[in-house]
Amino acid sequence: YTASNTLSLHDALPICFTKETNQLVHNFNASISFDQKFFKQDIDGSIAHVTMLAKQHIITDDEKDVIVNELKNIKQQIIDGKLEIDQSCEDIHSFVEATLIERTGDVGKKLHTGRSRNDQVALDMKLYTRDEVIETDHLLTHLLETILKIMEANTDTYMPGFTHLQKAQPLTLAHHFGAYFEMFKRDRSRLADIYDRMNYCPLGSGALAGTTYPLDRAYTAELLHFYGPTLNSMDSVSDRDYLIEFLSALSTIMMHLSRFSEEIIVWNTNEYQFIELDDAYSTGSSIMPQKKNPDIAELVRGKTGRVYGALVSLLTTMKGLPLAYNKDMQEDKELTFDAIDTVKGCIQLFDGMIDTMRINKDKMAKSAMNGFTNATDAADYLVKHGVPFRDAHGIIGQLVLYCIDKGIALDDMSLEEFQAISPVFKEDIYDAISLKTCVEMRNTIGAPGIDAMKQVIALNEAYLKEHPAADFVK
Fold first, then answer.
1. Distances (CA, A) of 426 to 414, 415, 418
2. 442-457 pLDDT, tens per residue?
């Protein structure tokens, strides 16, 4: 570029061009409307770059100081709202550099020495994504703390467990929530893996083939808290694997939130009444005054498809691109920014919703009793008294049919009614099929019994202490 100090960079023609870009083409090509989101990362990367240039004697220390001080001023002024980002610039990189040149003259023109917009944008996107991986982990950690708090308070809150949406066996709310603790814990481990794989610095790769300047790429990487420089300049400017991995992890998080939301929606119905959502996390109807709708849970469930769409879109964009950089890659930003904001918002809202909801313990216990969830334990009772399992299975089937015909639960049957179907039943059958016994006899690790749950809760507490938010940042 040969721009004067008063000319914005996007107005200066590359030396091989004799015409200005058509305005529609400029608008179509421009990315500043969305890539302005990472102005901080762009400026931080530029500060590291010129610091390295001075260390390598490519520019002087005085020139470095002028550039760094003004870049810091620009960054702070944007943060404070004193400097408005010029939307007529092609991208955030052009805006920052043009502003710097306008303020510092020829010194500012040295900022881009040994650098291409290809490796610059690759760096900015990596820095931005790295920050968002960390922020997402913070939100997941807080959600896990909320889930653990609910688990600790509900080790004796009995409820039906389901398979095929049919009542199956009794368990506790602590055990049910514990399943989601495991899911979100795995989500955190995926974020840690992504951070480790992506944390290498592409700056210094140039357009695709490096540069003849004696750059110290390891030093630049160190200044920006990367593990080291990337090792192939072509891959460096064209790699979007880390974004695809992050969008995949975000999609999995949303899948877990969506499954949990579906259960909250069902539990909140008049038919179940297992929970009652707080007014702050519900909405009413415009015409039906009795309604209290689980809109937050429904929107989380709905927005899951939006995040899936970002992942599939980026995979599709990348699938046919030859090495190295192609303009198609500009399509990574809007999709990723939207997905990140969506997931972060959903985690925070879901966290608040379950933290404030009221749990109807009596409704849960009554539902477990009325759904024959203790039928398996009744069969186990017969087996322990010498009845072959297949015979016991058939006997309990007869009991269930009898109860359905009478409109009663197994617990409501008299001993005479039990013995009319099998004389093996004795008075102790009532204790054997009580919800308390059905749950607390299951004490292998991972089961809902109170002793097993206390062990798991202790392990979960230790996990959160040993792995605080973003503990993978070294």
1. 11, 7, 8
2. 999 999 999 999 999 9
Give me 207's structure tokens: 């357009």
Query: Tokens 């540069």 sit at which residue?
Result: 211
Of the candidates 148, 147, 157, which has an alpha carbon nearest to the alpha carbon of residue 450?
157
Give the span between the Cα atoms of 184 and 168, in whole angstroms.
25
- Residue 274 and residue 368 in contact, taking contact as beta carbons nearer than 8 Å: no
Give the dihedral sign, CA 68/69/72/74: negative
Q: pLDDT tens digits, residue range 165-181?
A: 999 999 999 999 999 99
DSSP state of 329: G
- pLDDT band of residue 3 (cuts 50, 70, 90) is very low
Task: Kindly state the helix (H) or strand (E) to which residue 275 belongs, with its residue range.
Answer: strand 275-276
Question: Is residue 393 among the annotated active site residues?
Answer: no
**Which of 1-15, 24-38, 112-126, 393-407 shows the lowest per-residue confidence on average (mean pLDDT)?**
1-15
Residue appearing with tokens 């899948």: 255
Structure tokens, 435: 């919800």
Longest dimension (CA), the chain: 101
The one-letter amino acid code at 260 reads F
User: Which residues 6+ apart lie within 8 Å of 247 measured at CB?
Assistant: 307, 310, 311, 314, 335, 336, 339
Q: How far apart are CA 207 and CA 110, in angstroms?
A: 17
Phi, psi of 389 (to 5 degrees): -55, -40
Identify the H or E element spanning 145: helix 117-153
- Cβ-based neighbours of 162, under 8 Å, separated by 6 or more: 168
∠133-138-142 over CA atoms, to 5°?
145
Please give the C-alpha separations between residue 327 and each of 129, 332, 370, 447, in angstroms, as whole numbers.
19, 10, 62, 53
Nearest 10 degrees: Cα torsion 54, 60, 66, 69: 20
Of residues 164, 175, 205, 385, which has the active-site annotation?
Answer: 164
At 15, is the pLDDT very low, low, confident or very high (cuts 50, 70, 90)? very low
Q: Tell me the two tokens of residue 252.
A: 């999995």
> What is the Cα–Cα distance from 303 to 284, expressed in whole angstroms?
20
pTM across the whole model: 0.91
Active site residue 285: yes
Q: Which residue type is seen at 106?
A: D
C-alpha Rg value of the chain to the nearest Å: 31
Q: Quickly count: other Cβ atoms within 10 Å of residue 333's Cβ.
A: 20
Q: Which of 4, 88, 189, 285 is catalytic?
A: 285
